[in-house]
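Researcher: Quick test of sequence recovery. Tokens follow.
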């Protein structure tokens, strides 16, 4: 996404937007981690801190941002509430940081994490 002013041009990479979105997701209540958007054999892999951008897909269309997030949520939480919390936090974070409207934030729950000690 690029913006031009009389001083020059500002360009924001989709990867930078994905980093902001991923960080906002990981700080959200009920989230265990980001998941790869492509499930292999139906198995969900929780991405490590350095790779969590693979769980974020950013599209820039007509100066608007569309974000798809692939997450793993803690079992026992209300999935719809966690997903809405993620949507609101990501939208707020991106719009505050960039000043560009976020058209959509879609949350794809790839799996639930169950505590092993239960």
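Model:
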């Amino acid at each position: 996404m690029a913006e031009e002013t009389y001083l020059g041009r500002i360009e924001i990479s989709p990867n930078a937007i994905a980093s902001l979105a991923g960080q906002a997701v990981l700080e959200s209540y009920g989230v265990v981690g980001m998941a790869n958007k492509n499930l292999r054999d139906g198995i969900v892999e929780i991405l490590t801190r350095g790779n969590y951008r693979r769980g974020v897909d950013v599209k820039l269309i007509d100066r608007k941002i569309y974000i798809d997030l692939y997450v793993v949520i803690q079992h026992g939480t209300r999935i719809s509430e966690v997903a809405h919390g993620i949507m609101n936090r990501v939208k707020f974070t991106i719009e505050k940081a960039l000043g560009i409207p976020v058209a959509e934030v879609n949350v794809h729950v790839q799996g639930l994490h169950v505590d092993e000690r239960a």
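The CA atoms of residues 73 and 108 lie 10 Å apart.
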